[in-house]
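Input chain follows. Return structure tokens only.
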Amino acid sequence: MKQLLIVEDNSDIQTQMKWGFNKEYDIIQASDRVTALKLFRKKHIPVVTLDLGLPPDEDDASEGLLCLREILIEAPETKIIIVTGNNDRKNALKAIHMGAYDYYLKPVNINELSVIIQRAYYLHEIENENRKLHTLLEHEVGFAGMIGQSPEMQKVFDTIQKVASTDTTVLITGDSGTGKELVARAIHEKSLRKKGPFIAINCGAIPESLLESELFGHEKGAFTGAYAQQNGKFEYADKGTLFLDEIGEMSTGLQAKLLRFLQEKKIQRVGGRNDIEIDTRIIAATNIDLVNAMKEGTFREDLFYRISVISINVPPLKERGNDIRLLANAFLERYNIMFKKKIKGFSHSALNAIENHTWPGNVRELENKLQKAVITADSNVIEPHHLGLEKQMEIYGENTGKRYEGITLKEARNKFEKDLIEIVVKRHNGNIKRASEELGISRPTLYDLIDKYKLSVKDDLK
């Protein structure tokens, strides 16, 4: 129950207010300044009603104004409602200038005063949420909205700073869920193009037959269904940045058109004949090995060297050390605010599970698990089962130390990841869809990990 501090020396008014508000608030009362300050310092009550005429001289507002001043020095966010006599309007206005939230002139009408108190509590809660959010954002904007104190992420941040002011193309590599689009946005926001548009397109999420039109636009009648001229992402990104995510999924035909743009800074719409000059910076990203793709003939070598003038590799979450805990706490605060929860933190076992999980889905997986945990948690502390990590801990046992003896931390993490995938896939009898859901990653990511560790999975269940 919300606490309400009533500072009033008139016993009849004290009784009236206590009777009027005790069903909605935990009432704490004081009849003088010294007692009021002692109670306030002990409990830091968010809303206070304050009579200015306090003893020793009830006809002098000095004691009440001093009480107001001392409470606001202790906690400026406190909402203080001055409740005073009709003949003391002048001092009530003075109290407002000193920082009081509002004033109410006696005699007291419980219903009227209740509305003012409710508004005061509502405002206090909103301001408190905003303060938390501001603190969270200050923490997250350690660098362009990204959290990272590890040397690996500091290297990424340093490279962003160096390339942002140039117009060179950038290739961002890294596993799914590591935050490649955040890196691209950071480059844009710190560049001279920051006032221009940032347009992102996922080349792997759009069918090849539609991707060309999405990128380059089309003329009316260019194909069946092209009833009007349509601009593409290149034109929308003029004077700004075009982010091509999953560029490794682009067909070789579209790769040729992209290469022409990078060479000439011109495009042609589908079905068009006129060149259109475009001033946009290209940032690309991929989670596949483009060097291998070039060897296999699925990615053009000339385009690779054009887009990778500068390369930034975003490390997987498992290689970021204490960043995992920083991110977990940041997501907890974010979703506490979003869902109006008051979860205090993580249990020791939950932190242990977070730090020992390999996070194949990286930051995206961590964020998804924290969002779910905050929504479903039935206590004020996050436990492993809230995160869905209790099953993953099955691979730990009495012989854990022996299994990881004599190997490096990176080797141990890879072994853990391989062991975990084997256990989960086996648990679901090779059903990749169910295994990926339990692991909290996409099926393509799980396929990549199965290939990486050369695991045997029944083809008919893949």
